[in-house]
Amino acid sequence: MKNKKIIAILVVLIILVGIIMVFTKGFNKDISYQKATRIEVNIPKGYEKDDIKQIAEETFGNKNIQVQDIEKTNQVVSLRIKDYTEDELNNFKTKISEKYGIEQDKLTVEEIKIPGTRMLTLVTPYMFSLGLATVLSIIYIGLRNIKKEPLKKVLKVILGLIAALGVYFSIIAIARIPVNEYTMPIALTVYVAALLIIVGKINKE
Q: Which H or E element spans position 40?
């Protein structure tokens, strides 16, 4: 019983600290989900992606940069970067021109502002499946324990799931782990695992 209280206190503390971090600093989103600029460069002669990455690292330093191919023709490359100076961009253009033998005034470079992705947008695709699994589990627990304090056990399920996801997202916020394409699939795994463990324990009571 004492250990359960200690664990409960730790869970509450982690979630509280996580909430504070979210409200003060927000989540540390990967460059794919941050408000950024996409720089598209047209290189008619073609390019090597590794060369573009190297030039970008030399030009923009240690900034988080995402390099992507835009066309299958291998003539348009895209760089997604949060912030940079005009001098850095000009230096990048110069290095690209020198590398691929293109006159700088003929080098086509387009800058496109991209809004950041909200956390709600990342969560929305999973809400229906999570909600359905939760509702079915609650109905199952309620019916199975119709004569054994069903409301109390349903509340255990709800609080347990809130705690599991709360700790998961709090750790992400506190440790400044980047939110990326794996964040929600892992959250779904944590949720399902917590649901199975909680329902299993209630069934044994």
A: strand 36-42
All residues at 6 or more sequence positions from 38 whose CB lies less than 8 Å from its CB, including other chains: 78, 79, 80, 111, 112, 114
Question: Residue ranges per domain, the chain?
Answer: 2-26+118-204, 35-114
pLDDT at 104: 76
- pTM for this entry: 0.78
Instruction: Write the pLDDT tens digit of every residue in 76-99.
Output: 888 999 888 899 998 998 898 888
Q: What is the DSSP letter of 179?
A: B
Q: Assign domain 35-114 one CATH number from 3.40.30.10, 3.30.70.3220, 3.40.50.2020, 1.10.1040.10.
A: 3.30.70.3220
The answer to whether the beta carbons of residues 142 and 154 sit under 8 Å apart is: yes
Non-local CB neighbours of 123 within 8 Å, separated by 6+ positions:
184
